[in-house]
Amino acid sequence: MTGDSTAETVGRGRNARERTSAVGTRIREFVTERDFVADGLYLYTVLLVLFLWVPLVIIVFLSFAENPTAVFPFEGFTLKHFGATAVNEKLIRSTFTSVQLAAVSASVATVLGVLASFGVVRYEFRFKNLFVTAGLLPMIVPGVVFGTSFFIFFNTLLSDSTGFLPLVIAHSAYGFPFVLLAVLTRLYAFDESLEECARDLGATVPETFRDITFPIIRPAVAAGFLFAFIRSFEDYTRALFISGQLDVLTIEMFSLINQGGTIAMNVVSTIILVLVTVVLAVAMKLDDVVDHVT
Predict the structure, then answer these.
(1) Which residues pair with 77 in a beta bridge?
(2) 229/237 Cα distance (integer angstroms)
(3) CA 95, 233, 100 angle in degrees (round to 5)?
(4) Which of 141, 148, 121 is nearest to 132 (CA)?
(5) Would you tell me how many other CB atoms lie within 10 Å of the CB of residue 272?
(6) Which of 114, 146, 124 has the alpha carbon at shortest distance from 223?
(7) How many helices (H) and strands (E) does the chain have?
(8) How far is 84 from 292, CA to CA, in rounded Å?
(9) CA trace torsion 169, 175, 179, 184 (10° rounding)
(10) pLDDT tens digits, residue range 155-198?
(11) For the segment 138-152, what is each residue's pLDDT rounded down to a tens digit?
């Protein structure tokens, strides 16, 4: 009896060890098959997208909601907020002013940034590194310091240190490094032998730039212009110091917040979001079409 009992105990122990071993094997196989790093990155991506987009979705939702101040209680959808905002002359005027300001500033910054990029990449001159560093500084200089310095600068040189022209100059300087950085990166990776081949085949310098160089750097130029435009359009700190009596959308929207006018702010934010999305989609489509044609 004692021997049978011992054998049974040993058998049960062996079976327990086998089951434990089998469970451990399945766990190791599960850990091996699962890529926890990839799963973690996927979860991080989802959380980041939610963090970035949930506030925007709430603004769009409130711009159409009957109750424009809170998501709950939900009372239905309406378009009356858009109609009320459309008759706000000061808000409409400040929007058009900001669009004009951003377009002019981005155009100036793009022209100067492209020329500076070619100068840095294609030519050797003294203090080149210092020039590049100085060109990128407006990107990292705090807006308060930037706006104050330009206000003092214009106040010293001009009788009127505020207005459209000073703000164009300031925003052009602010957008310049975005264009410079984008085009520099593209030109450093540019194969100059393509230009040499074109000139060997009889193309003039303008023709080479039009048919070879510009199509290659066009995405970088467009990206730089877009960044400069957005930086100018959404700027508040620098505009606060230099705009003066000029109606700028960001300052007007901040005034709406102080006055409790969140309805108009939600509507304007929704319109801007839709327009930016449409413009980006059209720009990407046109770029694909141009690439296919060329």
Answers:
(1) 65
(2) 16
(3) 55
(4) 121
(5) 16
(6) 114
(7) 13, 0
(8) 44
(9) 90
(10) 777 666 677 888 899 899 999 999 999 899 888 888 788 888 88
(11) 888 888 888 888 888
Name the H helices within 123-242.
Answer: 128-140, 143-157, 164-188, 193-200, 205-208, 214-233, 237-242
**Best CA proximity match to 231, nearest among 148, 173, 155:** 173
Beta-carbon count within 10 A of 131 CB: 15
- Which residue carries 């703000």 as its tokens? 167
- pLDDT band of residue 20 (cuts 50, 70, 90) is low
Please report, to the nearest 10 degrees, the dihedral formed by the alpha carbons of residues 229, 230, 231, 236 taken in order: 120
Nearest to 227 by CA among 286, 276, 186: 276
Is residue 10 left, alpha or beta, with left meaning phi > 0 and alpha meaning psi from -120 to 50? Answer: alpha
- The amino acid that residue 164 corresponds to is F
Residues, the chain? 294
- The distance from CA 256 to its chain's CA centroid, rounded to whole angstroms, is 25
Closest CA to 113 of 127, 141, 100, 132: 132
In angstroms, rounded to a whole number, what is the distance separating the alpha carbons of residues 112 and 128? 16
